Automatic annotation (TrEMBL):
Protein name, as recorded: ABC-2 type transport system permease protein
Domain named ABC transmembrane type-2: residues: 23-255
InterPro entries: ABC-2_transporter, ABC2_TM, ABC2_TM_bact-type, ABC_2_transport
Organism (species): Rarobacter incanus
Bilayer-crossing regions: 25-45, 57-80, 109-133, 139-161, 173-191, 237-256
Length: 262
């Protein structure tokens, strides 16, 4: 079969199955929307620097978290489960190639991640009155940050799926890693308020850079002064994110097998 058609067919299957799993949709698709609502309501009387609201402050953080959850968390658990319950072993006997399998996963994450980001922005704008950028350059930056972040998160999730040793441990392995990174990467807590040691650790991983990139799009330029280095550093964000994309893709290439002898 044509590999492109095979990959697109797998992507259509992945997207259809995804939206039939209501629990997965809630915890990966709607979770950032719910968290934005919680923070916006809980801190509705708090005025942040520059006169912005809590919803304006947490929108870029939830966008970054959504990217990481849709890719790293969701695929880390999903692919590990498919490996450990025999799904990949059965797929080995079909015309599906690893490239088509990965294509299906990546397209699914791109489609659901973009839809999730659009829903987040819509809720923030209509429900909480968040002002959106008017400069075209901001939206161009948002587009490449979103797409690059989702692809990078997807490869990291597929690579991470090789670690769990049984189906019951998949969530236990992936969720703590994702949750800890959210707390130290400026998602739930202001990054500038964290100790230098935690900021140094977070700077190694991509989620911190996802959040910083999204802040550069949706927060006033005055907020750049409190970032590490006193600027948004979009070039550095691109370099670090691409480096993690390569790490995830290479790790997947080296460790992925249809049939794994445990």
């Amino acid at each position: 079969m044509n590999p492109i058609r095979l990959g697109l067919a797998r992507a259509a299957y992945e997207i259809t199955i995804y939206f039939r799993r209501t629990d997965e949709v809630f915890f990966t698709f709607l979770f950032p929307v719910m968290m934005l609502t919680v923070f916006a309501v809980a801190f509705s009387k708090t005025t942040w620097e520059g006169g912005i609201s809590a919803a304006e402050y947490y929108l870029p953080a939830m966008l970054a978290a959504g990217m990481f959850i849709s890719g790293t968390q969701a695929l880390g658990i999903e692919v590990a489960t498919e490996r450990l319950d025999g799904t990949l072993k059965r797929l080995a006997g079909t015309p599906l190639t690893p490239a088509a399998y990965f294509t299906g996963k990546l397209i699914k994450v791109l489609v659901t991640g973009i839809a999730q980001a659009a829903l987040l922005i819509l809720v923030a704008s209509l429900a909480f009155g968040v002002g959106l950028p008017s400069a075209p350059g901001k939206w161009i930056a948002f587009a490449w940050l979103l797409v690059l972040g989702l692809i990078t998160s997807s490869w990291l999730g597929i690579a991470l799926a090789r670690i769990p040793r049984n189906r019951k441990s998949a969530s236990a392995v992936v969720l703590p890693f994702v949750l800890i990174l959210q707390f130290i990467s400026g998602v739930y807590l202001p990054f500038s308020a964290l100790p230098d040691s935690l900021r140094s650790v977070a700077s190694v991983f991509p989620l911190k850079w996802f959040a910083q990139g999204m802040r550069s799009v949706f927060l006033p330029d005055s907020y750049a002064a409190i970032e590490q280095g006193g600027a948004w550093h979009l070039g550095q964000i691109a370099v670090v994110t691409c480096a993690w994309l390569v790490v995830g893709a290479v790790a997947t290439r080296l460790t992925f097998r249809w049939i794994v002898k445990e």
